[in-house]
Specification:
five-stranded parallel sheet, seven-stranded mixed sheet, globular, alpha/beta, about 35% helix, single chain
Length: about 450
């Protein structure tokens, strides 16, 4: 038992940091929990404290976020707990109990209020050959580059629909890797068409457009092909990846294929706690439903950042601030008028940033690109080796289970170590394809993360 806190924050990224700064300044006792040993989240994934990394995340893209990170690391009143996995979130009459584990075993943390700011993860995308060693997500490749400047391969191909792959490819190039090409499934005209729907929007969001444009120019100057309208269909190889194959018949030799089709909210804990959830239209993930103060449907439980829908670090940061103001309001530490006054500029910034996030989501919409990618032999549930064909047979043999949990019982899809984080969105999409309503996904259960049985035994 680790004592009672006023606020427990799950997640050390921009949203959690922003909330902690406001809460600590108001005198609240705050604990922050994160699976990574150091604060920063995925966007500012820090190297181990024992490892010196020169020029860690250089450039203006990260300057403001790094400044906030350093302020957060120096906060008085913040109890930072790195290397901690939160397994369960349980509502008690007067508090929350958070059951967690770290390298020393199990711990329980009590808090009057909880903010879940757990971020997101790359949307797993199933296609023939995607289980071959060497096929990775772009975010996974980027994690190696950011934290320890490790290049996890020699010759890289990137494929998908999300512009992040331009930034990752440029980071790989700067790190000395050979980049064979960046391949967008959608045509350039379709991407430009989305921009033209709101041509003045880039003027208010110059940095992300500038960063993507700079990466594109850098890649072209270095002779790296950036192709549009080239849809990935298969990864080729026997024991490991040897080539990426595209719909036009092109094969690109590579030992790492990094895919980037979008991201899913990390919302396991709100689901486990019984929060209302909503479906993400384009990726099929589930996000926490929140009110104008970032409060969920469970009293005392707030959510901010990608847990409420993937919209980027700038949105997450402001949602964290808004959540903290809402928590102070609920505690009576701010009047309604003062809370509204402090929140007003944040809401204005959020409205502008959300428009850009919506534009990016339209540009990167993966649905057309991934439709029909997986054949019947393609594994959808990697933990239990369940193929798409096996799932279709299970649906038809049982007169059509109408939700993911029912299909789970007859197929074992979602019963593995990841508890469906890798396959749930694909299972729900398959159910919809077969005529069933996609429903709310697998029933959220304890533990939210893999854990040793010994850590659960008294």
């Amino acid at each position: 038992m680790s004592g009672m806190f006023d606020l427990a924050i799950v997640g050390g990224g921009p949203a959690g940091q922003a909330a902690a700064q406001i809460a600590c300044a108001a005198g609240l006792g705050v604990v922050m929990l994160d699976e990574q040993p150091r604060m920063g989240g995925q966007i500012l994934r820090q190297p181990p404290s024992t490892l010196g990394v020169r020029d860690w995340l250089p450039g203006a893209t990260y300057d403001d976020l790094k400044a906030q990170l350093h302020r957060s690391e120096a906060l008085n009143g913040l109890d930072w707990r790195g290397g901690v996995s939160v397994l369960g979130l349980f509502r008690q009459p007067d508090r929350f109990d958070l059951l967690a584990t770290n390298r020393n075993g199990r711990l329980t943390i009590q808090a009057r209020q909880v903010l879940v700011a757990a971020g997101c993860y790359d949307m797993p995308t199933a296609f023939p050959g995607w289980t071959l060693p060497g096929v990775m997500s772009a975010g996974g490749v980027q994690a190696f580059l950011k934290s320890q400047q490790i290049v996890p391969g020699k010759r890289f191909a990137l494929a998908g629909t999300h512009p992040l792959q331009l930034l990752v490819a440029d980071q790989l190039r700067k790190a000395g890797a050979e980049v064979a090409g960046v391949h967008f499934a959608q045509g350039l005209g379709a991407m430009v068409g989305q921009l033209l729907r709101d041509p003045l929007l880039p003027l208010g969001n110059l940095r992300p457009f500038r960063d993507a444009a700079a990466a594109f120019v850098n890649l072209r100057r270095a002779g790296v092909p950036v192709r549009f309208g080239q849809r990935l269909v298969r990864a080729r190889g026997s024991e490991r990846l040897e080539a990426a194959e595209f719909a036009d018949g092109t094969r690109i030799a590579c030992d790492v294929l990094a895919t980037c089709y979008g991201f899913l909210p990390q919302a396991d804990l709100p689901r486990q706690a019984g929060c209302a959830m909503q479906r993400c239209e384009r990726t099929g993930g589930l996000a926490a439903v929140i009110d104008r103060w970032q409060r969920s449907s469970v009293q005392g439980l707030s959510a901010a950042g990608e847990t409420t829908g993937v919209a980027g670090a700038e949105v997450a940061l402001r949602e964290g601030r808004l959540a903290a103001i809402g928590i102070l309001l609920a505690d009576g530490l701010l009047s309604e008028s003062e809370a509204e006054r402090r929140a007003a500029p944040i809401r204005r910034e959020l409205a502008k940033l959300q428009r850009f996030a919506d534009l990016l989501a339209r540009i990167a919409d993966p649905r057309t690109a991934i439709a029909g990618l997986a054949d019947d032999a393609t594994i959808l549930c990697r933990c239990e080796d369940v193929t798409r064909g096996a799932l279709i047979r299970a649906i038809r043999a049982t007169a059509g289970p109408e939700d993911a949990s029912a299909l789970k019982l007859v197929s074992r899809a979602g019963m593995g170590v990841c508890q469906g984080r890798s396959c749930e969105h694909a299972v729900r999409a398959l159910l919809a394809e077969q005529g069933a309503a996609p429903g709310g996904g697998f029933t959220a259960r304890f533990p939210a993360r893999p854990v040793a049985i010994a850590d659960l035994i008294d």
